[in-house]
Amino acid sequence: MPTAPQTTDELYQALQENERRPYGRTRTIAAEDLVEAAELFTEPVPLVHALFELQEAYTYGSEPRKSPVVFARLLTLFDEQPDVFDERLRHMLFWRFKWVANALRALPEVPLAGLRQWLTEMGDRYEKAGFGLQPYYGQTYQLAAHLGDDTTLAYELWAGRTRTPLSDCEACEICERALHHLTAGDDERALRTWEPVLAGKESCQEEPVRSISHALLPLLRTGRTDRARELHLAGYRGCRRNPSMSGEVGRHLEFCALTGNEARGLELLAENRNLFDEVDSPLDLFDFSTGVEVLLQRVELLGHGELPAAGYAGRTWTVSGLRAEVRGRADDLAARFDTRNGTTAHTDRRRARLDRAPLRDALELTLRTRSLDNVAPVATAAVPAAPAAAAVPEPLPELLVQARALDEQGHPDAHACWARLRTLVAARDYTHPDDPGLGPLVQLRADLLDEEANRAGEKDEFADAAALHEEAAGLYDDAGAPGHAVLARAGALLATAEIPAEIPAEGADGGTDEAEAKAAALTTAHASMVRLHEETPGLAPYQEARLLRLRATALGLRLQASRSEEHVASAFAEVDLLHAFATRHEIAGQISGARLLRTSTYALSGDLPAAATEIDALVDLLKAQGPAWHLPRTLGLRGRIRLGLQDAQAAHADLAESLRLAADWPADVVDAARLHGDLAEACMHLGRPDEALRHLTRSAELDLRRGNRTDAFCTYSNAAQLSLDLGRFEDCIALLDSLLTDPGVAAGELDDRLVAQLRLSRARALHVGEDLKAATAEFVALAAESAGWDDDPGSHAMIAAETAVLLGESGDFGRARKVADQALAAHGRAPRYERLSNCLRELARLQAQQQGPDGLADALAHLAEAGRIADEARAAGYEARGRSLDTALAYEHGRVNAYAGAYEDALAALEKALALLGEPAEGDPAGEWAECVRLAGAVEGIYLERPAPALTRLDAAVSRLTALGHTEESEPLTSLAAGLRDEE
């Protein structure tokens, strides 16, 4: 605490500020400081308030040893100065007897006699104060349940009594009753009892999070898997990283372990690593540790004991090592509780949890489904093997002959042969065969370098590819293989041309300059390839065809970069040259390649119908004559062309077939991640968003496995936004939480702006999920960070505008105004007319709605600023989507004045809005006009008490809407008119 409070007013203000902090060490330390400050005042009441705050911090900060000590001070103060405690403080004091009972149960060092003595003290105090004993019997029952005794009588003495003002809240009592039925083995009755809490009808600070964690397994056992999944996502978010809810976290880890989600369990364990060190409650640690062990035991049983796991601070852990440590500590805690209690209840409960068999082999919990293979260290993570593995000969001469033969055809199985050869050649005892037909070792080394260069090019690592091709060319020269050397040099030329150009920051248009630079580089590369071709006679037909293919590819890429009509003819000419040569020499792979390039050239030149015709013929050719491995990629391209032609159904069929055929070939035959992304687009066009969501997440997963992290996270970001658009905000939050806790994000391996976009989507999802506090905190942080984005003030304006609105929803209008001013300043550099207008109008509405007449002046000031934005937009020729900014402003003037009780001004503003909107015509949307009429009718008829003109307005509008067929929009107006007539 920077400065100790000097007055009681300052102390109370500091206490209020501390209450807004999340539970944890920061809040607890501040509460301890405030108690010290309160002790300096002569008045006892501030000290009582400070002690209550400190006890709460200890209780919900999982420090049960300290809570009873603070309460003892409060009880002494009450006994010595009862008049200091007003009715509210007295109620709070007696309520917290239960807190102390809970704290003492959680400490195995407190003797059983001490627990019973405290309950006796509680009962006596309640009886003497004239309170009902139902809360006392509730604590008696909870002790019996903790001990593992027969709870029948204790349950009846508690549950059969009438509730009192000091009884636990309805939600907490529902949970205790449900747990009683669960312990008796009656899942169905437990779930029926829990329903009001699980449905959100009853809640408190701990509920429904506590109930959800206990209900997950009964839901699975009774076949309610969808509900279990839904509640896991919502419930986990409510307890994660919270020391006072470590037991709940442990049960969510157990749920993951028993549903085939071990990888997610390890991810959640890492997110909650703080709990190993921050939980001071032995009972909470017992619950948490047992859940952790259930997870680790399952991972180890599946053969992944060597995986890294997040555990106790001070060292790194594997799953096996952490499990042994957790098991020892949890066994010790169980023994300590059982020794204190004189039963075996805790050991038995622990064994029952550890002995549970999985309830589902694989329950999809989140959009980012991962297996334990996916969480292996990057250096050792295995890429899934291709479904059809190539047959690789064992004898080296046969292997080399097959590798070169397959490579000559462009067959994908060549890669497996080269990989095997690379391993053999790297061995220390490798001896190259003395066979002239195989060529010298230097030629084999050149082959391997050239294949490695091609691989680098496929991953867009163009600088590496160029260097490897050049090195291979030199070795081919040494081996006396000029044809291969020419192809390697041509490959180097193409790779070099594809290296992104460095454009000076002061360039007028970076995108255009980069495209022009790339087109120029490809022009130069093509000219050099032509010279190489002319200077190298005697090439084998397959080599010459491959060189022609590289030449055509260079001009195709140039057209793609420039999109210039002047580059179209030359691209077609090279393709025709390749096609004629390949046809003459019957080189099937290059015939197909030429037609694929021709299709792409048509598409790039904007002639999609011609592209479709060409690729239809190619598909027929490939189905009849092959090569078969070209078909998946060709179908994928035809699917994209059909998307461009807005034939989503045919596109979906092609893309799905491409994906099916690709499964028969090595993974690099087709970009499966791209196919899934294209299928997602097709599904959206077909109105199948849930299927699109599955394809997006699959696409991202495949990109991630291939090391394309940026592409993967961009796709995941799109999936998160789609899930939010579908109303699946818990799925959205769970996905983004998983992404944002990824080690690569923490290590700064991802672009800062992409991470910010993920956080922004998460904040929006939290807002949709009505977690206003968390959403506002994230928005405030993002607004502060984006203020430093000098290269992107428009994004800062957008983020700051949204932040201001959330602050307004929270009632913090002072901060909202400051953040809105930041948005306005950024808007001055990069206009965002609609965003800013929306922000200012919404702030005005919120302030008038929450503060009434007292907030009118500030609300009108916001609207005046929105008016200035509308003027700027009009002068700049900006047209808003939907209604104009002026119309929206007039309508908001009406609402704001109505909230503040300025009804004449409200009606005048609404009349203006109606005039700007104009009456709807045939085919026009009518919702906004109808709502404006309704509000004007309510202001005029109800608040200004002029029902006659209001009814005239409403009846005319209803007639107009009915004539246009807008019956749904007319219903609220009809209802309002009926109410006004009833009043008459």
Notable characteristics:
globular; 2 strands; 984 residues; single chain; two-stranded antiparallel ribbon
Protein described:
The chain is globular, with a radius of gyration of 36 Å. It starts with 7 loop residues before the first helix and ends with a helix. With 984 residues, the chain is an all-alpha fold. Residues 377-388 have low confidence and may be disordered. Strand 1 (308-309) and strand 2 form a beta hairpin. Strands 1-2 form a two-stranded antiparallel ribbon.
Briefly note the structural class of the backbone. mainly alpha
The strand order across the widest sheet is 1-2
Radius of gyration, in angstroms, nearest whole number: 36 Å
How much of the polypeptide forms β-strand, as a percent range? under 5%
The averaged pLDDT comes out at 93
| Strand segment tally | 2
Largest sheet: 2 strands, antiparallel
Give the number of helices. Answer: 47
Runs in which pLDDT lies below 50 for 5 or more consecutive residues are 377-388
The level of helicity is over 70%
Ends distance:
62 Å
User: What is the 3D form?
Assistant: globular
Q: What is the compact description of this entry?
A:
The chain is mostly helical and 984 residues long.
Helices and strands in order:
Elements (H helix, E strand, L loop, with lengths): L7 H12 L5 H14 L5 H17 L6 H14 L6 H9 L1 H9 L6 H18 L4 H14 L4 H8 L10 H14 L3 H12 L10 H13 L3 H15 L6 H12 L4 H10 L3 H4 L3 H20 L6 E2 L7 E2 H23 L3 H10 L41 H14 L4 H13 L14 H18 L3 H18 L2 H17 L11 H26 L5 H22 L5 H17 L3 H17 L3 H18 L5 H14 L3 H15 L9 H14 L3 H17 L3 H17 L3 H12 L2 H4 L5 H17 L3 H15 L6 H17 L3 H17 L3 H19 L4 H21 L8 H15 L3 H15 L9 H17 L3 H17 L3 H17 L1
Antiparallel strand pairs: 1-2
Helix pairs in contact: 1-2, 1-3, 2-3, 3-4, 6-7, 6-8, 7-8, 8-9, 10-11, 10-12, 11-12, 12-13, 12-14, 13-14, 13-35, 14-15, 14-17, 15-17, 17-18, 18-19, 20-21, 21-22, 22-23, 23-24, 24-25, 24-26, 25-26, 26-27, 26-28, 27-28, 28-29, 29-30, 30-31, 30-32, 31-32, 32-33, 33-34, 34-35, 34-37, 35-37, ...
